[in-house]
Fold:
Amino acid sequence: MARISLPIRLILLGTAPILIIAVTIGLGYIDISPPDIYHVLLARFGWPLPDSVDPSFSFVIWEVRLPRILCVAMVGGGLAVSGCVFQSLLRNPLADPYTLGISSGAAFGASLGFVLVLFGWLHPDPWFVPGFAFIGALATLAAVFYLTAPSQQLSSNSLILAGIIVSAILSAAISFIKFLADEQVSAIIFWLMGSFIGKTWRETSVLAGISLPCMAVLMCYTRELDIMSFGERTSDALGIETVKIRKLLLIIASLTTSACVAVSGIIGFVGLIVPHFMRLVLGPHNRLLVPYSFLGGCALLLVADTITRVYLPVELPIGILTALLGGPIFCVIFRKYQLARWRS
Amino acid sequence: MNERTVEITLTGVTFSYGPLPCLHNLSLSLQPGTLYGLIGPNGSGKSTLLDIIGGFARPQGGRVTIGGRRLESYSRGELARLIGVVPQSFTLNFDYSVEHVVLMGRYPYLKRFSGPSPEDLHQVRHALELLDIAKLAERPVRTLSGGEKQRVMVARTLAQDTPVILLDEATANLDIKHAISIMHIMAKLVKNSSRTVVAALHDLNMACAYSDQIIALYGGKLVASGTTEATISPALIETLYQVPVTITAGTDDTPQTINYRYH
Structure:
């Protein structure tokens, strides 16, 4: 990797998601050629659609594929950035967006939403499950903060431990809900494994409205993230209001994660491996890691979603694919990295 | 180089961790242009005292002033431009290079959306050269030995360019050459730019060699303070460590030496 200069690496990594989006728009049950995509996109802005282009392509691209693809990109990017931030804040390379139990909280909220609809206590509405998931995730974060509050330091060990405790309790609660759901349990399980089936502009715009401002805030604190990975004493000594900024960044990263999980279900591995991969390629500086983790997360999840959407006979839950795709690649990179370090 | 000087005053400072008293009614005045050797056995309150001066721990009683202003009235950013701290050790899980870690010392002077200025880069280069680690600049800190890492920490604190430097047993992990080199650099900073250095030291001969003043703590209480020659005595060392010693008086060229009687 060192043979490719940093600017070239940045350009390659930066253009990858754009190229993937450009290619994946055309792929699906109906293949649409690049010129037709070009005409359909222009037609949206008032240009005439040539007669040779099937008018239904406009619906397929604008109402089916583009919202889903952008939703996938934002979830992938959001999870990867959250993972990157959690790893620096918790000073733990094994941390990911779900370390504080946010995924368990979202899963519990979503499962609760499912059974409430199932038992007829709530009228079915497409927003119930994501809404409950989002509230569940944020309530979990509040519980973790409450548990660690007496120390007033929000130390990484206390946060991780509180996350594990809350996750364990919520996992038991989810199992109980699955037991109650009986034959309907498969719907819950499928949601828990993550999917982008039927995502519309509504989910995409809500997600963008939450995660893009969060990204902007995180980008303002990349220097602090670098310093905070040395620990609280160092960051205090260098003039950072550590506890205040750690709390702010944990809330922002958790908010992003909660929005992603509420929209897509629980997609593992993206938040763990993408920041690691970017760290190996670009170095440890969050100034580059945060934006490029976003792009890397977009790229990985888009590839996984395209495989499940286009090439598999049935849509697999995407969480399975991200782990199957990303895991082995990460193993190879990690092994090479360990060898290089050992030799040096 | 920093030309600012500040006086630090502690009046009746008391601190405890829960019911366990750590510092009791401690009063001190730390003057610019002085290197203070902070000595005392383990648990005597040396690190706690440094924590209080650095603003990391808030005393339960008494008050601390820096440059005539109460310590609590300073923001963390203001304190970081006044007080630099070298910890005893640190852990790092990511591969930051030596140069970048030293550059972090300039954080208190950087504006949010701007990069390091030529002055910042000059300070970093100067600190790297002073600590003899310029050749390691590109190396990830994680791959360095314990002693090299400690020199990086000292370089980062020098790059921070503060009028007050606190060393919390910062030479404990270093071989004698590098320990002497760091104390020598501190002594030069004190002499040439009137800094205040407070160094918690376990090596009493190092304390005698480099300290202008000694602060001796025992059980959280100040048991002695004053010029090194006047303060260090066999009776004081025996009080602090319960180890019998003899002291060889210093000359113009050599500092006084403490000789331990090994059992």
About this structure: Chain B has a mean pLDDT of 90. The first strand of chain B starts at residue 8 and ends at 17. The two ends of chain B are 48 Å apart (CA to CA). Residues 176-193 of chain B form the longest helix (18 residues).
